[in-house]
Amino acid sequence: MELNLSQADSFSTGKRVCGAVREGVAAVIGPRAPASTGIVQSICETMEVPNLQIYPEVQQHPGCCVISLYPAQESVAQAIADVVRNFLHWSAFTVLYESDEGLLRLQEVLKAHGLEDRKIIVRQFVPGKDQRKLLKEINASNETRILLDCATDRVLDVLQQARDVKLISVYHSYFITSLDTHTLDLSEFEPGQTNFTLLQIVNPEDMNVELTVNYWTDKYYYYHRRSLGVTAETVRTETALMHDAVFLFARALHRCYFDVNQSFSVESLECDDRHKWIYGLPLANYMKISEMDGMTGKIRFDDSGRRTRFKLYVVQYFTGEFRKVGWWETGHGVNRTQSETEKEAEIQKSLQSKKLIVASRIGEPFLTEVEPRGELQGNERYAGYSVDLMGKIAEIVGFQLEFRLVESNKHADLVNNLIARTADLAICDLTITHEREKLIDFTMPFMNLGISILYGKPVKEDASLFAFLDPFSVDVWIYVATAYLGVSILLFVLARTSPGEWDNPHPCRSDPEELENTFNLMNCLWFSIGSLMGQGSDILPKAVSTRMVAGMWWFFTLIMIASYTANLAAFLTLNRLEGEISSAEDLAKQHKVKYGTMAGGSTAGFFKNSNDSTYKRMWTTMSQSVPSVFVNSNEDGVQRVQKANGKYAFFMESTSIEYQVERKCDLQQVGGTLDSKGYGIGLPVNSPYRTKVNGALLKLQENGVLQELKEKWWKAPANESCSAKDASELDEDSNKLGLANVGGVFVVLIAGTLTAFLFAVLELLWNCRKIAVQEKISPCEALTSEMKFALNCSNENKPVRRRKEEEEEEEEEEDAMPAGVTAGSFARIGFEKFRDKE
Ligand code: GLU
């Protein structure tokens, strides 16, 4: 006998059960209404009539004759907890439940959630009311995983309202605890969007279930001429359990009859006289110990008649059909039957019909607008590394995409788009950071980089004309000149005081009247300069003291010349391009060069959150700088460095620096990188596309496509490439000294020669004046005759010029003297001349 007492109160239920028992029953199956369970159970226990229950038990009353086929609540609660933790791997989620009974089912989930786990939100909704406000709040909390516990017939209503508040999308997942969810039509929730997970007790792939259902539907059709409307897939738990209960009881009767050879008969029993049915207890006990395969799997009971060691099947609805993906069994926990490949194949299938929205921002070389603007449509409007990369990924994974620019062109806006799930992917120079990882998901990095310094190149100094002076500092040159003068004067003084330096001017005369000293001041200066220039001189000291001075001077010049020569080559070939700033530490130490970053970017975040004392200090300096050192974009930063003339350095990511310095030859990267990170493609949290996109990226990396794309977009054309220009300049310049490098030496030579020429003119004029006085002729005549002689190159000997009186005297003497005396007069004149000179 089945009792359909869903509407009845306990009193009328009791009356009906007593009435039935009076007629004579062998077992009671039911009731359906939880409120009546107690009274039915109590009457059956009293009269020892087996009571087979097929609905969730409300209270636990272990008794002699109650047999519950519905899985025990605590076991279902454990199954739900296991699926959440070990199958879905949810660490944060929202629990949405309807009744306190539901909360009992969810107790294990709540207990399993540790203190250190991410927060879970638990919300109760009032059945039959508008749930949109509550659902909106859940949506605002950015929760994408919802554990829904409510009656089967309310599931669709809740889901429809959830759809209204945009809580149904590809990023949302639902776990519905009702064991009959598989009987619902979920097709209205756009297959391939939301993932619904559910549990069911009827094995959806069991052939016996199918056969049984077919058998009963055929029978039903035979008697009623219409379809039962049930298939193996849609058979309700209640139906299956009813079938199993009847079979269990029939089997028990059958076995008792044959095995124990016991014939049964029902008796009329009165509720009032507490009379017991004698066959009830043996039958109930037999059912408790027996095992049977039913539509709900293996049927086994514990001593108190509660169903134990049963299996629940984990089913998912994603691409338009319910698919068994795993199972749970008492004592075994949850197991996955769907392989990763099958899962991926499902996602792949759902992707094929999809157009994913790719959020991006304008920024070279990742994305630029193609000219002429406004005339092109769709993705044709954009070009850049991001477009190429996304194109390749879409090709591998097999989806269509649409690029959409974020309004503010800021990185933060891209992240916000992903959080709001208005975009499926976000690509640009989006750095993977810890902060962002809390809000969105990232693929593996497609490019590696670090923070570095963008700074202006120091202006190439023109080679100095007097670069030959560079090997020694001005001080050293002054000391050398002072030493030269000092040594020359010392030599002069010592030579005058040393007897050894005083010589006989006429070695032929053994008894000279006077001695002469070669080291007059001019000769001392000549001697010292000769040594300093490495040429030596024709006069040398003889006295010990002067030789000592000369020796020391030679030693000094030896070292100085060697040092000068060693340094000269390096100084003449060196391009003085090193600036004052060569690292972040250099920047931190000074106040002349301002430095900044892009506002709100990961670089600013690096300094802000750094624990390093230098970077912390730099962040304080940057944030206190007036006017602000922060810029809105990398492009602004680059322009500021270019305009600042060495007064501003910009912290930028090495990849962007690489791109800029390849094209802007007045810029350079200074120092290495301060950290190491990567750019990734952003996705909303729990995006189902992440694995697919990751796989495609890995493939592109292995094939060298990522490298090819980098080269394509980073390398400038040869005529614009600064690195190519630098290389060719280096080739031309290498080891060659230009006139600019050694021009000063020519200047010195020319200046020296001109000075010498000036002295020559002065000497000539002085000599002409002397001749004019001696010969009593005009200076002009003397000059003319001297010039004539000098210009007449055939004259190799110059006659000695004598004074007029001397000539007349000579003529007189010549007249008076024989011819042979002429030689003696020459000798005298020669001697006179020599004396004059002295
Ligand atoms: N790539 C950075 C980001 O994702 C922006 C540039 C920067 O901060 O240097 O925030």
From TrEMBL:
Keywords: Cell membrane, Disulfide bond, Glycoprotein, Ion channel, Ion transport, Ligand-gated ion channel, Membrane, Postsynaptic cell membrane, Receptor, Signal, Synapse, Transmembrane, Transmembrane helix, Transport
Binding site for L-glutamate: 431, 436, 602-603, 653
Stretch forming the signal peptide: none
Domain Ionotropic glutamate receptor C-terminal: 355-716
Cystine pairs: 18-271, 665-722
TM regions (residue ranges): 476-495, 553-574, 745-766
Membrane topology: Multi-pass membrane protein
GO CC annotation: ionotropic glutamate receptor complex; postsynaptic membrane
Region (Disordered): 797-838
Record domain Ionotropic glutamate receptor L-glutamate and glycine-binding: where: 365-420
Family of the protein in this entry: Belongs to the glutamate-gated ion channel (TC 1.A.10.1) family.
Site residues (Crucial to convey clamshell closure to channel opening), renumbered to this chain: 581
Entry-linked CDD domains: PBP1_iGluR_Kainate
Subcellular location: Postsynaptic cell membrane
InterPro entries: ANF_lig-bd_rcpt, Glu/Gly-bd, Iono_Glu_rcpt_met, Ionotropic_Glu_rcpt, Iontro_rcpt_C, Peripla_BP_I
MF-aspect GO terms: glutamate-gated receptor activity
Domain of life, per lineage: Eukaryota
Full protein name: Glutamate receptor 1
Stretches with biased composition (Acidic residues): 806-816
